Description:
Layout (H helix, E strand, L loop, with lengths): L20 H8 L1 H7 L5 H18 L8 H19 L8 H8 L4 H10 L12 H10 L1 H12 L9 H17 L11 H18 L8 H4 L5 H4 L7 H14 L3
Helix pairs in contact: 1-2, 1-3, 3-5, 3-8, 4-6, 7-8, 7-9, 8-9, 9-10
Amino acid sequence: MTTPMTTLDVTHRNNAPDTDLDALVRRVDPDRWLASRFIADPKARADVIALYAFNYELARVAGGVSNALMGEIRLTWWREAMDEIAAGQPARRHPTVEAVVAAGYPLSALAEMAEARMADLDAAPFETEAQVLAYLDATAGAVTMLAAWRLDPKADPHAVQEAARAYGLAGLWRLKRAGVQRLPADWTQGDVRRRVDAALGKARGALKALPIAAFPAAAPAALAKAQTGERELSPFETQLRLTWAVATGRV
């Protein structure tokens, strides 16, 4: 799903705003983009894409700066953009800001997403499982919960928490394979896979309570186990797994 701290297009370093958010997300966050194709309502799909674009803008900050101070400045820009709107000021002229605000997401939640990404500016691995889970809940978890809420306001955000953790763990493992170590130093591939399995087991029970319309928000978790394997999934395999997940309501 994001720079030294994410698997979202680690090679993308252009800081110019992208006006075609759907094309942007398709390029930098293909798993979530493919899952969004199962959202039938065009307006809801566009709103979820806006959220994914916002997540990408935050996630790529750490990989596009030369030092932590510059990263703090950029993340503060995004947080303050949300705070200003909450205070009644006009939205800053940036396509992602305008789109995510127009979608109606809670501004405080968006500001918290920006604040959570401050953790990306520290390259040191997390030391404990609790730290890993807190980070995942504030990043991948926040994205998944907000997307589920947009697709069905009655959706219980806790229903997607474990699915988001599974997908987030897989993302951190993929980062490790790319040379960026944020997982605890003593975690092996087997340790990560066991934790992904455990999260998926809990997710399957929790997702039974999730409205059908909100399921695409959690669908990328269906890729998590395979993404902690020995090879990358092909685009065709990814599409098949997501199609199966949405058709069956299972991850």
